[in-house]
Amino acid sequence: MKRKFCIAPMMKKTDKHFRFLSRLLSENAYLYTEMIHSNAIIRGDANKLLSFNDCEQPVALQLGGSNPKDLGIAASIGEDFGYSEINLNVGCPSKKVKSGNFGVFLMKDKNLLSECLYEMKKNVSLPITVKCRIGVDEFEGKDFLFKFVNEISNVGIKTFIIHARKAISGLDTKRNRSIPKLNYKIVKDLKEEFPELEIILNGGIDNLEDCKNLLNNFDGIMLGRKIYDDPLFLLDVEKEIFNNVSQESIKSIMNKYLIYILNLQSQKDLNRALNHLMQLIKVISKNKKVRNQILHSLKNKDISIEDIFVNLKEDLLRKDLALNL
After folding, report:
1. In sequence order, which ranges of the chain are alpha helices (DSSP H)?
2. Rounded-to-5 percentages of helix, strand, coil across the chain
3. Looking at the annotation, which residues are catalytic?
4. Which residues are annotated as a binding site for FMN?
5. What is the per-residue pLDDT for 94?
């Protein structure tokens, strides 16, 4: 089941550099791009937006938008780039998507959403999937969700990734990640009502015990900020969920990522990739002085890659020992 454990699409986080790092840490996690609007792909630099490293596979392209023709074209371009799936964002509640009438606000217009998905399916041979909420504003409750999924599945959609809380348009994006409370039960009931559909649960999952328990009721789970805040959690996922114990030390993984960074040509890419590296280092060592020493070493061309993480030696050893317990 390839979507058993998914890393959620996150704006300014799940770029190709973080996905490369994620793949170094996990062989089995299913990856998603940041949401990319169909207009940006059609009228912008598609190569810059869509290129990725083959090692990321399986990786899905998440699209945003509400123009059926444009979404169909963008999906086709995504297929040409080699993505394994095209996902339509029907869950983002930001002000930007509200003004553009896409994201979660498409849940209010099932006819338009169906047209969008029909055009996408017509243009590609890849799986087309939907990431949505359990509702939005006054469009809520079990009857609404079940009817919504039933109608969208009739277009040929077989995989739904569902954030288990409704969106409220009066709240900002951050508060929409915590208000109102999560409702896993309604998604569990949905899976029982539609056993033939693949239902992936998203929202609030942040520990291994919950991951294991939830996989008893759902086809897969999706985690976002937990993974970005603690990328090493992926090593635990590999061990505990996929029974795959990494033979590599954390330092070896970090060295591979550093070599990847040093081969980047664009300064913007370099900066973004370094941000992900420092996020990982922050998990390993809480010592700000050590992190600053590493940043200084990265700028010093006379220091070898093998020596850059020397100040993390004890912290790395503790992490490796903990993973092997």
Report:
1. 16-25, 38-43, 46-50, 68-81, 95-99, 110-123, 142-153, 184-193, 208-214, 225-229, 233-240, 250-262, 267-284, 288-299, 305-308, 313-323
2. 50, 15, 35
3. 92
4. 9-11, 62, 131, 163, 202-204, 224-225
5. 79
Q: Which residues contribute to the annotated binding site?
A: 9-11, 62, 131, 163, 202-204, 224-225
- 184: which 2 tokens? 């896993």
pLDDT the model gives residue 178: 64
Tens digits of per-residue pLDDT, 22-63?
Answer: 999 999 999 999 999 999 999 999 999 999 999 999 999 999
Across 50-86, b (16+ Cβ under 10 Å) vs e yields: bebeeebeebbbbbbbbbbebbbbbbbbbbeeebbbb
Residues 6+ apart with CB under 8 A from 41: 49, 50, 63, 73, 74, 77, 78
Q: What is the mean pLDDT of the chain?
A: 91
C-alpha–C-alpha distance, residues 13 and 21, integer Å: 12
Closest CA to 231 of 43, 82, 31, 96: 31
**Which residue carries 């469009």 as its tokens?**
139
Beta strands across the sheet bearing 220-223 = 5-7, 220-223, 198-202, 159-163, 128-133, 85-90, 59-64, 31-37
Q: Which domains does the chain have, with CATH numbers?
A: 5-240 (3.20.20.70), 250-323 (no CATH)
Q: Which of 95-99, 146-150, 223-227, 268-272 has the lowest mean pLDDT?
A: 95-99
